[in-house]
Amino acid sequence: MFSNRLFNLLVPIISVFLGFLAGAIIMLIFGYNPIEGYIALFDGAFGNPYALGETVRQTTPLILTGLAIAFAFRTGLFNIGAEGQVFVGWLASVSVGIAFDLPAIIHIPLAILAAAVAGSLWAAVPGLLKATRGVHEVVISIMMNYIALHSCNYIIRNVLSDNGDASERISETASIKSPWLTELMGYSQVHWGFIIAIIAVVAMWFILEKTTTGYELRSVGFNRHAANYAGMNVKKNIMKSMMISGVFAGLAGAMEGLGTFGYMHAHGAFANLGFDGIAVALLGANTAIGSVFSAILFGSLKIGALRMPTVAGVPSELVEIVIALIIFFIASSYIIRWVLLRLKKEEN
Fold first, then answer.
1. What's the rounded Cα separation, in Å, for the pair 258 and 112?
2. Spans of all domains in the chain
3. pTM of the model
């Protein structure tokens, strides 16, 4: 019988393979060449320094939102409000980047810290209601997404600008872009945020696997009644879990505000970084290192898709279908497990 560790490794790999296979079949049905389509996809994501830089830039916030969702999942919670936490983190980092004139060694950490605190406090609301009133965190966090979207738009138009659709640009001392790195990567929008994302990956792993706090958080997520019987403070740990999850999502917003854009614009709809984080966490089996690899996959798919229409004539929307199919096969993992078990029995 397959071990749980082997199963957790095989399911994402098989899901990705089946997703690409189904995408190829769809291309054939509609008269496109799947080989040309996937070659264009790969070249668009990794074919030159500019493409690689854009893939890294797209991957960075996805790692962080994937960590946000995965951390909550590992502790028995579903933080579907990561999208709103991204927005408030983005707004907080840009506000600090505009408001202060400080040396970069102080300004950048201060802006990043503001984003982390904003995301954490925004996530604390559903955490508090879950802990004290038993309100399901999904319901509250969904509503908090809309509150964040429209509140941020209002602040951008009435506080950070004079009735405009975007804030001022942040000071250069708050930017995590680097002329040297930009030139190295073909003048793409890549920035140093990927270093912050890697630090966050290590932090999540360390918290959950190597600390007493992480043990309590996982215990509460696994069985809160048993955890309470063992003397753990369940309400406190629910709050703590949501707030730490919000930190990761807020940092993702900082990557957009201090790196990719250098400002915040009003949004007519969600940016989908938080929602894409759900797919990243699922494919990454809710682990820190798994979220890195799944974020790289989804980031490269989104960037590579931009080249498919011009080179292979394949609509870029097909990549969204491939992503949806990958998620579908992950959600249907019990089918994959059944097949693997049947194959194992036949071998015996």
1. 8
2. 61-300
3. 0.92
